[in-house]
Amino acid sequence: MAGLNTGFANHIAPGVTTLCHCWQVTRADGAVFAFTDHDMPLAFAGVAFRADTGLSARALAQTSGLSVDNTEALGALSDDAIREDEIEQGRFDGAEVQAWLVNWAEPAQRVLQFRGSIGELHRTGGSFRAELRGLTEPLNRPLGRVFQKPCSAVLGDGDCRFDLTTPGYAEERAVETVAEAQCFRWAAFPGYDEGWFARGRLDVLDGPAAGLWGIVKRDYHEDGQRVIELWEPIRGAVAEGTRVRLTAGCDKRMETCRLKFNNLLNYQGFPDLPGEDWMMAVPRSDGANAGGSRR
User: Fold this and answer.
1) Which of 60, 86, 202, 215 could form a disulfide with 91 if both were Cys (CB 3.0 to 4.6 A apart)?
2) Domain ranges of the chain
């Protein structure tokens, strides 16, 4: 157990204890949720831990190797704590979790049992089940670079280095017409070529779905309107008048990087990489074995 203090050790030594569990969940947007399985609220380190959430946890499994430490948190959904719509929207995905074993009679006597993040989160009826993953979980992810013709970077990330605040590559405006939080229409949308936002992002800036985003599937004109269609609906309510931000899309081709973004120096693909058929090619008296398709 990490952070075992003398007071806590002295408390558990006799075998008769007043212990409970406390959890703190910190989402990526900064929202903090704190719970305890004690029958009364607790507070320490400037955080108040609620006792009326019905939250409980299964036994913690920890190892000394690189396998993932894991446990599960179980709880009931409530309007003023963890809400079902926020789980559906993915707001708790990847949230940081800390779990303590606490002497509820003297909260300063506690030990940090677990620190990690939320993995898979399921909801069934009026309850939820959250898989908690330990700090070693990222060490099990495969690393390395993929050698391929398309660019492997994400537009605007540390490898791409393109500045998405450059004028002409993002547009903020209010929603005029929306169908099923997936198809957005504007009567007038000048200044951008058709398809400019395809493969880009639509971010919701205010309203109940603020902070959520989707990938643009199609960007086209229809019946005199500009239509932005997403691959999947936004998992929250998006009404007319909601502010959204559209970001230009990239199809990962070298020509797009050079002509649309003027960012060829940071292109992370290998456009001259020959295809697999080039490795199996045999000598020919005509044409070139360039790895392209043959007709």
Assistant:
1) 86
2) 6-140, 170-247
